[in-house]
Amino acid sequence: MIVFMTALLVVLYQLTCHRNQRVKDGQIQICNLCRDNPKTQLWLSFLILSFLTTCTSAESEIEDLLTCLEELNSTLQKSDAMLYTAPLSDVEKCKDKVLRCYMVELIMVILEEQINDSKTDCLYHFNDDLKPEVGCPQCEMYSLQNISTFLRMLTNTLQRINSM
C-alpha cells in the first residue's frame, strides 16, 4: 500500500509541475506551484485519505454486522419463524442479493416479534447500503430454515465474505 501511495504522489506531482522540476532519480521534488498552494496540498491529502478509507470500509461493515448479530442472537432465537436461507454457493455470484435476502428476513423477524432495541439499527443501515443485483434468484427460491439454522448460515456467509 505504501508503494502505491508513493507512486500516486509521484504521478500527481509530475502532472502538476513544470518539465524541468519533475522527479529525478526517484526523489520527489515539489514545484513552486505545488509548494505555495495550500489548496493543492489539502486536496492531495484528501485524495490519499479517501483511497485509504475505502479499502477498509467494506470489511468493517461486515465486522460491525457480525457484532450486531452476536448482540441480538438471544433475542432473535426466541422466534419460531421459518426463513428463506441462501446457500453459501450463491455468495460469490450474488453477494449483495444474498445479503439483502438475509437482511429482509431479519427485519421481518424484528417487526413480527416487535423487537424494540436500538441494536437493530445496524441491520437497517446495512440493508440500505446494499446494491441491487440483476440475474440473481429471488429470496423465495431459497429453502426455508428455522431461525437457528438461518443465523448460523448468515454468520458463515458473512465470515466467508469477510475472508474474500
From TrEMBL:
Give the subcellular location: Secreted
| Cross-referenced SUPFAM superfamilies | 4-helical cytokines
Instruction: Respond yes or no to whether keyword Methyltransferase is given for this record.
Output: no
UniProt keyword list: Cytokine, Disulfide bond, Secreted, Signal
Q: Which InterPro entries match?
A: 4_helix_cytokine-like_core (IPR009079), IL-15 (IPR020439), IL-15/IL-21_fam (IPR003443)
A single Gene Ontology MF term assigned here is: cytokine receptor binding
For the biological process aspect of GO, one term held by this record is: neutrophil activation
Q: Which GO terms describe its cellular component?
A: extracellular space
| Gene3D superfamilies, sorted | Interleukin-15/Interleukin-21
Q: Which family does it belong to?
A: Belongs to the IL-15/IL-21 family.
What is the protein name for this chain? Interleukin
Origin organism is Oryzias melastigma
